[in-house]
Amino acid sequence: MTTRFGLATVALAVAVLTGCGDLSADEVEDLATTFARADDDPGTRCELLASTTLAAVQQDGPCDDVLAELPLGSGDVTAIEVWGEEAQVKLSDDTLFLTRTSDGWRVSAAACTPQGADLPYDCDVEAS
């Protein structure tokens, strides 16, 4: 009896975790695609930023104006990695970092370029 419960519990946990992982990756891809395709609509991109990132951007001026001047990517999604409440999305011309908030996934950093193996990315848009 204990063994059956243990196996059933493990199977349920795997099913739930697997399902959640797929759902998160789909949600992350949807948000990243919307962000990338809004290359002519900085207002939409501002709405997709995490609150701390939006606050940091607005220190330099109105969000729409600041984002319009930055080299944000608009390419296709080429890779997604989700680690719990954080995600990285590689576009064909940019790398985005996303965080899960109470409002769903939001972009926490954009216009990011790698600085080398095991070094943090340098991002033009990020929370301070």
Q: Can you describe this structure in just a few lines?
A:
The chain is of the alpha+beta class. Helix content is 44%, strand content 28%.
Number of domains: 1
Q: Which radius of gyration do the C-alpha atoms yield?
A: 17 Å
Ranges where pLDDT stays below 50 over 5 or more residues in a row are: 1-21
What is the overall number of helices? 4
Ends: how far apart? Answer: 54 Å
SSE pattern: HHHHEEEEE
The CATH topology corresponds to: Nuclear Transport Factor 2, Chain: A
At CATH's second level, what is the architecture? Roll
Strand tally:
5
Major sheet strand order: 1-2-3-4-5
CATH domain class: Alpha Beta
Approximate helicity band: 40-55%
Task: Bin the strand percentage.
Answer: 25-35%
Report the mean per-residue pLDDT as an integer: 86
The biggest sheet amounts to: 5 strands, antiparallel
Shape: globular
Q: Name the structural class.
A: alpha+beta
Protein name: Lipoprotein
Keywords: Signal
Q: How is this structure best described in words?
A:
A hairpin with an 8-residue loop joins β4 and β5. Residues 1-21 have low confidence and may be disordered. This protein has helices spanning 2-37, 42-47, 51-58, 63-68; strands at 77-83, 86-91, 94-101, 104-113, 122-126. It is 44% helix and 28% strand. With 128 residues, it is α+β, with helices and mostly antiparallel strands. The protein has a single domain (21-126), classed as Roll (Nuclear Transport Factor 2, Chain: A). The chain has a five-stranded antiparallel sheet with strand order 1-2-3-4-5. The chain starts with a helix and ends with a strand. It is built from four helices and five strands.
